[in-house]
Design brief:
Elements: E1 6-8, E2 14-17, H1 18-68, E3 78-79, E4 82-83, H2 100-103, E5 140-143, E6 168-172, E7 182-183, E8 204-209, E9 214-218, H3 239-245
Parallel strand pairs: 5-7
Antiparallel strand pairs: 1-2, 3-4, 5-6, 6-8, 8-9
Length: about 250
């Protein structure tokens, strides 16, 4: 008599031994452990590609608005925590529980998809109201030097230093930083973060440029990744703040 423990099927015929079954399960577990990191990286890459696509579409809307308005750029009018009427977007990303404020922005008529205003990797929720929170509707903001309150860059023809190929427009903004539609970049004399770019794509952020292209930037220093607060200084040796500052005028 075969003294091996066997699992039999309904007909009574021998199937796998218990040891064989355990070996198969172990192999599946090992393969899963090898594949899951690769799948996770592929998911992050896919989200970054989607985020880049969003910003390219928003950048096209931005250019179309300027073309329709004699090169005048969309307003980026805001108070500290909300964008105001007639701006490219309205409201506060931390509190908006619907897409109404996106639809009231002057860019919405050029592309009526609210999905392009939100990074697919952004899992942040709105500030609780009445005990409830909702997925946020917006992840992006525009450099406040572009038609922000008091900004001197109000027309596309004024973009020269940096040139359109290097002048940032839309930024994927870090979830604790974003509120109104403006992305504040400190002038070079000020070594601090006014707003923080996002780093949710494997320590990378996404931004668009005046000439229409978009890029993913992997952060090389540490200050972005530490989720600093408003106005907090970056280390003197950190290259990321200067890299961001290079995408906007020296002063404004």
């Amino acid at each position: 008599m075969n003294d091996k423990l066997r699992i039999t099927n309904e007909t009574g015929r021998n199937a796998f031994t218990l040891i064989e079954l355990l070996v198969v399960i172990a192999i599946i577990a090992i393969l899963a452990s090898l594949l899951l990191p690769a799948l996770s990286k592929a998911k992050i890459k896919g989200q970054q590609a989607n985020c880049l696509s969003n910003l390219k579409q928003l950048q096209l809307c931005y250019a179309m608005y300027a073309d329709d308005n004699r090169e005048v750029l969309p307003l980026n009018h805001a108070v500290p925590t909300a964008s105001l009427a007639d701006s490219w977007v309205v409201g506060d990303a931390k509190r908006d529980t619907s897409t109404t404020n996106i639809e009231q922005g002057v860019l919405f008529k050029y592309n009526r998809s609210v999905a392009i205003y939100r990074c697919p990797g952004d899992r942040s929720q709105t500030i609780p109201s009445g005990g409830k929170s909702f997925p946020r509707t917006r992840s992006y903001a525009i450099d406040y030097a572009l038609s922000g309150d008091g900004a001197r860059l109000t027309k596309a023809s004024q973009i020269s230093n940096p040139a359109p190929t290097g002048k940032s427009v839309f930024w994927d903004e870090q979830e604790d930083s974003i509120d109104n539609g403006g992305f504040g970049i400190a002038p070079r004399r000020d070594p601090s973060w006014w707003n923080l770019p996002a780093s949710r794509h494997n320590k990378s952020g996404v931004l668009s440029f005046m000439d229409g292209h978009a890029e993913g930037w992997r952060w090389r220093g540490t200050s972005v990744l530490k989720f600093l607060t408003y106005g907090q200084s970056a280390p003197r040796t950190d290259p990321d703040l200067r890299r961001v500052q290079d995408t906007t005028p020296f002063d404004f």
